[in-house]
């Protein structure tokens, strides 16, 4: 048994506004059947959606998770940056330096993301959302490989990456040390392929931990991965 990654969800103070921003940047359509917050169809071979869930949590540090958007040419990169800025993004400094070939932006609620220069071989063929780049240990990369049934496509010098067998977005972890918990961030929403109780127990055996006795919206079970990042196991869908 494995879990399917059904959504990568943003903590959002204004879910509708943030969904509008990302729909405009990525050219995505809204999912009309979402019963939990606002969701966009990612159009990605990895099969997930983008979710936007109302949260009062304040952002206190740089996100541990951020999207890397790909470009087909310098002009394409410039067009993506201009479109994002027109929709309410701003330039962000995360220590990239003035000579960086990628552009770092933050969305209207401060979530950082990168627009990658053309010719990046690691993200070739991954689609517009080339990667979800995460701050995290090798242990957590191996955990998510087992949890999702996605093979490791990179495992070197504490850095790991997984990708769906169907292709699409890579999920990468840059190795330790971990950045502080930013509070407001992006999270994984999973749906089990079978019995949810059995799947939760499997995830616990792989190194997840229960987040107290809490349950989220729609009866979701809240867990943390080995690095302490919260994720949800939803009812089967």
TrEMBL record:
Pfam families documented for this protein: Glyoxalase_6
Entries under InterPro entries matching the protein: Glyas_Bleomycin-R_OHBP_Dase (IPR029068), Glyoxalase_6 (IPR041581)
Boundaries of every Glyoxalase-like domain copy: 8-116, 132-234
Domain of life, source organism: Bacteria
Coiled-coil intervals, chain numbering: none
Protein name per the record: Glyoxalase-like domain-containing protein
